[in-house]
Design goal:
Layout: H1 14-22, H2 27-34, E1 39-40, H3 41-47, H4 53-65, E2 69-74, E3 80-85, H5 87-90, H6 93-106
Amino acid sequence: MTKTKISISEKTCSLREVLDIIGGKWAMPIIYILSKGKMRFKELERNIEGINTRMLVKELKNMESNGILTREVFATVPPTVEYALTPKGQKLLPSIVSLHSWGKEYSV
């Protein structure tokens, strides 16, 4: 049996682009939590064990710029901000659930 070497250019690899968007440690937990509906910043922070405020802000900004979630600001004192998945973000859910199931079955 001959092994065939597959050549994939990093410039054209869509998998690389996907990993740039959701490959961060916190992206998938954020998407999973937001699958339950709109949430405020503090709700997200409380629901994601181990994340710090700075990292949550960074991940949310990255995901917003990539069209995975929306950020809605309400004119209250103090300002209220709600995050929700976009249709693009919701399409990631089946993949994340599959990865979660795979991890439960095969991780040590």
